[in-house]
Amino acid sequence: MCVCVCVCVLLLLCHMLGHFLHLPVLSCFLSLVSRGAGGWSPQVTDRQPWLQLDLRDRMEVTAVATQGRYGGSDWVSGYLLLFSDTGRAWKQYRQEDGVGRFAGNVNADGVVHHKLSHSIRSRFLRFVPLDWNPSGWVGLRVEVYGCAYKSYVADFDGRSSLLYRFNQKSMSTVKDVISLSFKSRQAEGVLLHGEGQRGDYITLELHRGKLALYLNLDDTRLRFSSGRVAVTLSSLLDDQHWHSVLIERFNKQVNLTVDTHTQHFRTKGEGDSLEVDYELSFGGIPLPGKPGTFLRKNFHGCIENLYYNGINIIDLAKRRKPQIYSGNVTFSCSEPQLVSTTFLSSSSSFLSLPATLSASGGFAVRFQFRTWNPDGLLLSTRLALEPQRLELQISNSRLRLTHHMSAQQKEEVSTGHRVNDGLWHSASLSSRGLQVTMTLDNEPSSTMELGDHMEAGDSLYFGGCPSSSSSDSYCENPTLAFQGCMRLFSINSQPMDLNLVHQGRLGDYKELQFDTCGIHDRCLPNFCEHGGQCSQSWSHFYCDCSGTGYTGATCHNSIYEASCEAYRLTGSSSGLFSIDPDGSGPLGPTQVYCNMTENKVWTVVTHNSTDPVRVQGSTLQKPYMMKFNYSASPEQLMALVARSEQCQQEVVYSCRKSRLFNTWDGSPLSWWVDQGGERRTYWGGFLPGVQQCSCSLEENCMDMNYFCNCDADTDSWANDTGVLSYKEHLPVSEIVIGDTNRTGSEALYRIGPLRCYGDKSVWNAASFYQESSYLHFPTLQAELSADISFYFKTSAPSGVFLENVGLKDFIRVELSSPSVVTFSFDVGNRPVDLAVKSHVPLNDRQWHYVRAERSVKEASLQVDQLPLRFLEAPSEGLLRLRLNSQLFVGGTAARQRGFLGCIRTLTINGVTFNLEERAKMTPGVSAGCPGHCSGSSSLCHNSGRCIEKNSGYVCDCSQSAYGGPSCKEGVSVSFNRESSVTYTFQEPFSVMQNRSFQASSVYRGNSRARENMAFIFMTTQSPAMLLTVSTFSQQYIAVILARNGSLQIWYHLHVDRRPDVFSPRPSSLADGHLHRIRIHREGKDVYLQVSNEYIYKRCRSCENVDEEVMQAGSKGFIGCLSSVQFNHMAPLKAALLNRGSSLVSVRGHLVESNCGAPADSTTSHPLSDQAAKTNKDNISLHDSAVIGGVVSAVIFITLCVVVVMTRFLYQHRQARRDASIKEKEHQTNLEIACRREAAYQAEPAYRTEDNREYYI
Question: Is Magnesium there in the keyword field (predicted)?
Fold first, then answer.
């Protein structure tokens, strides 16, 4: 039984670091508030004060409480809690979400309690103040709550093990429960192993600091295979602190728990039982040559409370029971003195140690380090021959030694790979004679030859350099200071005692934390969604979304549209597309065919058996059965059907002497199975539950005595083809035919593809006409991530779009003023507000788009096409959004600040809310929204925006590459070799650059970098330049046709690297046919649609840097370009509509044409001539207004678009070359010539270093 105890700390003063408080454990509960005066307060001169408690023995601590110093103004408002078994090696306690900071007091008298989410089993506790009363000083009284803790411990020295021998030859179990705790001195080691002759095995081992479980049940394929697969969990388990493990197995279902993390999985094998022969070994495998073993090292460390199916293994070993063999195992845990130091800051941390004299001359330095950062200074020392110095650093995840001989001269050697993997690595540096040797772990040494003997200077700087104001100004951080842990310092074979450094008696330091390694695995748990790969630095984690089909900081957002209807609204034509029906939800994308040639947009999903199938010889007892496997999963099909307005599936069924129903009792002889696995007996479009066919519905059955033609049971062929249109039952998952065994009896069937049309979520709307009204829905399930998108229109100056609250947490999106949308939330750290301000009022009775997203990494807010607002989440803080009330849409629970207007297409985490259904039963709210632009008829195409007018509507095509009354008329131009168009326009600075992200870009590429490009072209020329985007900072994107006519996309986004090239397919596109190109880039991933083919590929580096691009540029372009779109801009259309502008330059002869017209085959409702005339006038004026308005914005990056690359570019390049082409001129970028041309054409105000140019 656990007896609760408390440790009472009374009237304690500790004025020096290292003063320990040895207190008896008291069996009592006492109040801190009533205990007299006093408390602990350190001296003001203490650099890192802390209060340490010795509980006399290991205890299980479940809660702590703090109070300020009695009778004064001293208290601690925030602190860290550390624990240790020895009082030397400490570990920081982290609460839920990895938060290390504890909230303290706000006055001297109040008591703040913290119940620990997981208990601490330790002897020593240390309270480290972080913040205190700014008007006073540190003052602290503490109380600790917990229970006595008893354990059975065994110590393994790396060569020992425990063997548990069974009473019989083998042990076969269908259920196992194995639990233990361990602390390890190394990252490798076997904890548990057992195997059987049948091929079963179970192995639990430490590998690279992670716990790996190998488990197989009667799978002979894995027995003789070297590819045994492990389930791994947790990391950094070699930290010399206790970790708990629990393995629970029932049949093939297994739960593996390490500390607070659990993984559920299903084991391999054909059986349900685990059969182990003779014995289980713990702590190692006693015979390394034993057949079937594959492990490397035995465990080195301590194990406690080891239970196998309720049997206390260590207790049996201590009592020397005969079934236990203990080889070299002791029953007390020895504690090694491996004390670490944490370098906290990547800019200012350093440790200075004196360079002791070496008897043999030269110097030798050894130490160990672990980190997540790919860059950082490890060691810097000045040499006796000034100004020479040596630097040992991590650079690009490798260990690099640099000998600086002068300011301009240096020599380097490198070794290792991925030394920032979070594991401990040993590094040594030594000099002898004219050589300096660098060694990493057990790898071969790297040697650097010197011109003279060298000796180290007076001091060695580890981890970083002091500020430049110090006297040792020779030491400079090459990139970043080291951020991580170091230990086992040795200089000239003399170990360094860091306690002396801590006490100020040796060397110097800054921003260090002694006696602990503060490394933290930020990828555990993995917050990257949809299969994104997690990587990390010391203070942040990052998600690589490559190849997942998702994007964003945590791979939350799908790059695909949710439906074919959504693709049509972006201007796509019929073809194969990947759709993601649940958006950011758990379902992945699937490929479908979008048929956009009709008035309705059809989504077509095929299956594995679309050809006619003949059936004979089946009976009701042995029926013919066919299961259909669709190109989408059942879950994806359900989401697609639920999202669609209507679905149907054709069933072609012909028969001869084969009935569908028994003519005597009406029981079915054949049937089909729906998506839910239910048997259905209706054929054709009739209502569910009625055993009839289409001919009965149409009253044209060949024998009116029957409801199906086949039931007439004639010798001639009959037909019962029909269309199933009750979408809740679709698609057909299986067909069963049972009456084809008679003479001359046979059936012929074909199940067509699933066809659905419409997207009922696009125009699902509600109108709010009372400020106190709202719609309510269940609580948002958005603990870790939430994306919210919707459209609204209103004339009101403000109002809350939606709100969901918890006890303290909340999330809210509102129109806070006529031109400002605000996204607010609080996850327990502090309230956060993101606001986007429009330059025009948003309460103009027109539709506006809002998208708000919050994840554990960042928050963002998008309004229409305005610049996206980002805010990064703190690296240390609460992560989970905890809500418990209903979600209110259009208002709040207090019925205040309600929204007046229309909201449509409300989607949260991929789920579209049915506003219309809820509005039908809510006072003050009506279903739908009045106005011409509120229906599903898609009046404006190709991203055109519908604008309400008093007597109708017009389409705003300013954001579209198309024109005309409905934004359907492609803007096309025919070019010859000498013609070109240059258009310069400007864009808000925040669209192109995000300052908050640049600080962390050293660890990965900018995942927010993205482009969307689309155009239509027709040519017979190759090579040819189709589109180029370039900047004055030497970056470019080029879309070209290569010499063989194949499409190539070139990216030169990093001026210090080679360009990347993406070649989707080798076939020629210079065939005189129209080709529609869509390109979407997210970071390193390129998604491309060529006509109806959708392709994904990662960029690859290319050696021949500019040759293909140069040759394409030299040939110009002959052909037709149409409907050119870059992001939300239409440069070709804007250039043609603004020829008189100083930002437009036209060279040669341009001919407007309609060559792109055949590419658009969609239709819309016709407009009257007057409406068309009004709309055309509006387009022209609006385009000019938009361009002029953007030019007059506050902050810009200048952008230049050049339509058709002509000989002018090539001639400029040639003019810069000599007759003999040199290698460096070979790398001259293609944008130089156009940069000059654009600079001359643009106004002086636009000739800046931020100019970006587009060539088409």
Answer: no
CB 346 within 8 A of CB 420: no
Is-contact 631 754, C-beta < 8 A? Answer: no
Question: Which DSSP string do the residues of 642-666 spell out, in sequence order?
Answer: HHSSEEEEEEEEEEES--SB-TTT-
Taking CA atoms, 835 is separated from 851, 1113, 1127, in Å, by 12, 44, 23
Residue 291 gets which letter from DSSP? T
Which residue type does 734 have?
Answer: E
For residue 951, pLDDT over 80 is answered with no
How do residues 184-236 score in pLDDT, each as one tens digit? 989 999 999 998 888 888 999 999 999 999 998 876 655 444 456 789 999 99
Contact 540, 875 (CB under 8 A): yes
Provide the pLDDT for residue 1173. 33
With a pLDDT cut of 90, the percent of the chain lying above it is 41
Find where tokens 């804007």 sit: 1134
Q: Of 1207, 1202, 1043, 1229, which is closest to residue 1126 (Cα–Cα)?
A: 1202
Tokens of 1200: 């230049």
Distance CA 1184, CA 1190 (A): 10
Radius of gyration of the chain (CA): 37
Q: How many degrees, rounded to 5, is the angle at CA 47 between CA 44 and CA 50? A: 85
Backbone angles phi, psi at 111, to 5 degrees: -105, 130
* pLDDT at res. 304: 95
| Cβ atoms 159, 288 nearer than 8 A | no
**Residue 402 phi, psi (nearest 5):** -125, 130
Lowest-pLDDT choice from 16-30, 518-532, 732-746: 16-30
Q: List Cβ neighbours of 920 (8 Å cut-off, separation of 6 or more).
A: 927
Residue type (1 letter), 123 = R
Q: Please give the Cα distance from 41 to 1211 (Å, whole number).
A: 78
Q: Say if pTM beats, i.e. exceeds, 0.90.
A: no
Q: What are the residues whose beta carbons fall under 8 Å from the beta carbon of 881, sequence distance 6 or more?
A: 780, 782, 783, 784, 786, 806, 809, 811, 825, 827, 854
Average pLDDT, the chain: 80
Q: List phi, psi (to 5°) of 954.
A: -135, 160
pLDDT at 1214 over 80: no
The residue with tokens 């799978």 is 219
Amino acid in the structure at residue 773: S
Q: Hey, what are 218's tokens?
A: 């009667």
- C-alpha span between 679 and 977 (Å, rounded): 66
Q: How does 906-916 read in b/e, with b if 16+ C-beta sit within 10 Å?
A: bbbbbbbbbbb
Q: Calculate the alpha carbon distances from 496 to 354, 365, 424, 501 in Å.
A: 10, 11, 18, 9
Give the angle 1070-1073-1075 at the CA atoms, nearest 5°: 85
Q: CA-to-CA distance for 1129 and 1195, rounded, in angstroms?
A: 18
Mean pLDDT of 333-355: 89
CA 437 – CA 53 distance, rounded (Å): 45
pLDDT at 1119: 87
- What is the rounded CA–CA span in Å between residue 897 and residue 815? 10
Q: How confident is the model at residue 253 (pLDDT cuts 50, 70, 90)?
A: very high
